[in-house]
Amino acid sequence: MRADARRNYDRIVEVAREVFREQGYDASLDEVAKRAGVGPGTLYRHFPKRENLLDAIMQSWVDKVTETTDKALTYEGSDRDLLIHWFEDYVGLISQHKGGPAKLTSAMGDPVSPIRTKCQVLSESNGRVLDELRAHGALRDGVDVIQVTRLVGGVATIADNSDLDPAAVRPMLEVVADGLLK
User: Which domains does the chain possess?
Assistant: First the structure.
């Protein structure tokens, strides 16, 4: 990639991150191009679909998911507290942008979504936590990682759409956790 093309690419990603944080994932891509100081053609050459732009934005987020999971697995407390703490972190990770929880949760079931591989990081992280609880003998039989990922994603989507604060979300996450634990 030429140096000027790389600068445009990086600038578009940086600006898109800001615009999506302000306006949600459905923000105008024309607004992104305008703020980045490029034409719409330049934006679409680099990112033919909105999902391609989301994928580029999410790369640093993937690292944060892994770091948060590692930290959650060192949590010292009851199995229930570990699971609720993880669910709160999970909701925070997918709720950084308005509309994020619904986008990320639905992409998990879409085999052609450009952001699906990033979403699989969430599922794998959730699996690591559930495997830890399973090893403790704390998890009910038949608990499926994808179902739990979608369920917690659903809670996050409701919180996002209703502008609920973490204190209002926690009781819902407690209900989910209590349903999963022995």
Answer: 1-48 (1.10.10.60), 50-180 (1.10.357.10)
